[in-house]
């Protein structure tokens, strides 16, 4: 590396550091509303520690200071990314479908971390080009940095979509058993709320968690029909939506609930059988690829190679 390239790299790093220092200085920082009203709220009594969220301890005590320094920057970048991408309502719905264990801010921070991780690959190649003069051209490295950052954001979205699909598959597997347990409880004389409470205590999967959330909404003041409709709003499964609608109609009109639950469980089992048959058909077609392109050519080679060698010997 020449002295000019080394000086340019050091100047770039120094300029970047100065820009960050000036941008994050108190004079350049925008004053938030919380900073304005904080002096007037200092005399208020501190809330109970039982109601405060416990901060998650770092996996390594030595990284606590680094985490404290990086967290404000990540939050700032995540907020800007959220304003750039938009769609908070759709994202909130997807996070709810994935289980609701991650907030929008945490998801955006994870996207920023994935984008930085993807951009580091291109940055590493760009540094090799600047320091050692090897690697792809600078323009290609810059394109790799941008592509890696975009790939990190899109990859986190794909991970969320996959998590939603896996959770919905687990709920479909649990649904027939849960419906039959509800039917047995109702047939034994339990009310609708009593059957839901009993089954929610016995089940520990994703559908049982949704039933516990519905019961919590009912205890908070919502009607049972509204609490059941909340299950359909938090998921995108057509069988579960039909199940909730059937229970709501049966509760409102007083029709026999056990028959509806058994019919819903039977429909879901039939739908599961159809999905297994369709998956088997797709796997059968996928199995033809290695058979046609790997096994069959190998068999042909083993069959014709001895004859080809014999013909070669005879010709000589």
Automatic annotation (TrEMBL):
Gene Ontology cellular-component terms listed: plasma membrane
User: What are the residue boundaries of the Type II secretion system protein GspF domain, all occurrences included?
Assistant: 180-302
Q: Which InterPro entries match?
A: T2SS_GspF_dom (IPR018076)
Q: What is its main location?
A: membrane
**Where does this one sit in the cell?**
Cell membrane
Please report the record's description of how this protein sits within the membrane.
Multi-pass membrane protein
Superkingdom is Bacteria
**Keywords in alphabetical order:** Cell membrane, Membrane, Transmembrane, Transmembrane helix
Q: Where are the transmembrane segments?
A: 6-23, 112-132, 138-160, 291-315
Q: Which Pfam families match?
A: T2SSF (PF00482)
UniProt cross-references to PANTHER family, sorted A to Z: CONSERVED TRANSMEMBRANE PROTEIN-RELATED, INTEGRAL MEMBRANE PROTEIN-RELATED
Name of this protein: Membrane protein
Organism equals Frankia alni (strain DSM 45986 / CECT 9034 / ACN14a)
């Amino acid at each position: 590396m020449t002295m000019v390239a080394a000086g340019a790299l050091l100047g770039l790093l120094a300029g970047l550091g100065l820009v960050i220092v000036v941008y994050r200085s108190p004079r350049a920082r925008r004053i938030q509303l919380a900073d304005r009203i904080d002096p007037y709220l200092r005399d208020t009594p501190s809330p109970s520690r039982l109601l405060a969220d416990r901060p998650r301890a770092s996996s390594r005590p030595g990284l606590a200071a680094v985490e404290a320094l990086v967290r404000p920057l990540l939050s700032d970048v995540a907020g800007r990314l959220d304003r750039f991408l938009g769609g908070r309502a759709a994202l909130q719905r997807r996070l709810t479908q994935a289980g609701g264990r991650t907030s929008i801010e945490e998801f955006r921070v994870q996207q920023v971390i994935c984008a930085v991780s993807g951009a580091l690959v291109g940055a590493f190649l760009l540094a090799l080009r600047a320091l050692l003069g090897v690697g792809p051209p600078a323009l290609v490295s810059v394109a790799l940095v941008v592509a890696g950052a975009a790939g990190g954001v899109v990859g986190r979205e794909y991970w969320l979509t996959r998590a939603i699909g896996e959770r919905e598959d687990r709920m479909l597997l649990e649904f027939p058993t849960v419906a039959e347990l509800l039917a047995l409880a109702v047939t034994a004389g339990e009310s609708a709320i009593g059957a839901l409470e009993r089954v929610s205590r016995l089940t520990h999967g994703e559908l049982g968690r949704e039933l516990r959330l519905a019961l919590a909404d009912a205890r908070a003041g919502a009607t049972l029909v509204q609490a059941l409709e909340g299950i359909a709003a938090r998921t995108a499964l057509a069988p579960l939506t039909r199940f909730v609608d059937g229970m709501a109609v049966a509760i409102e009109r007083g029709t026999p609930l056990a028959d509806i639950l058994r019919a819903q469980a039977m429909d879901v089992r039939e739908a599961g059988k159809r999905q297994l048959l369709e998956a088997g058909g797709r796997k059968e077609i996928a199995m033809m690829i290695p058979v046609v392109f790997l096994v069959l050519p190998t068999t042909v080679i083993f069959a014709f190679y001895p004859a080809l060698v014999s013909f070669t010997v005879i010709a000589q």
